[in-house]
Design goal:
Elements: H1 2-29, E1 38-46, E2 51-62, E3 71-75, E4 83-90, E5 93-100, E6 104-112, E7 117-126, E8 131-142
Antiparallel strand pairs: 1-2, 1-8, 2-3, 3-4, 4-5, 5-6, 6-7, 7-8
Length: 162
């Protein structure tokens, strides 16, 4: 009888170890989302036809000061009226909000598609809360963002998406 109990215990132990190994294998292969930050060249496309695009280079600086450890501030150095805000990352999700010229409020929500690419949706509001534009965006990692060159700077008012 003792021999039968010992055999049963051995089989249960082996089965438990096998089950544990099966559960650990996917966890070992799971990859965490890459840390977001640095410079990205971002192109936005307007709804409903996804036309009328704009492209700017955004600098994302990690400060750890906005809800999550991987968070910070962002700015668009080539936009002379001032376009800046805050961002955070939660897993592969990125969220950034900001304001341009104290008049236009922006909100982007998207995903880290890879270590060098992002994509998602954006919406722009007037300071009074009315929606101005909405659409999608894509972005690719850039080495750095250029500063504004005033002699070649063109604008349609102070709205950076126009």
């Amino acid at each position: 009888m003792n021999n039968k109990i010992a055999t049963t215990k051995s089989k249960l132990l082996a089965l438990g170890l096998l089950a544990g190994a099966c559960l650990l294998a996917p966890a070992a292969n799971a990859q965490s989302a890459p840390n977001f930050g640095g410079s990205y060249s971002i192109t936005g496309y307007f709804e409903p036809a996804l036309t009328g695009s704009y492209t700017y280079c955004f600098n994302f600086v990690k400060t750890g000061s906005v809800l999550f450890a991987n968070s910070g501030t962002w700015s668009v150095p080539s936009y002379s009226y001032g376009w800046k805000g805050t961002w955070y990352q939660d897993g592969d999700e990125i969220v950034f909000h900001g304001v341009a010229d104290g008049t236009y409020i922006f909100s982007w929500k998207g995903r880290l598609d890879s270590t060098t690419a992002i994509s998602g949706r954006q919406v722009e509001f007037y300071i009074n809360g009315n929606t101005d534009t909405a659409g999608t965006f894509t972005g690719t990692k850039a080495a750095s963002c250029p500063a504004v060159e005033m002699e070649t700077f063109k604008t349609n008012g102070s709205d950076p998406t126009k």
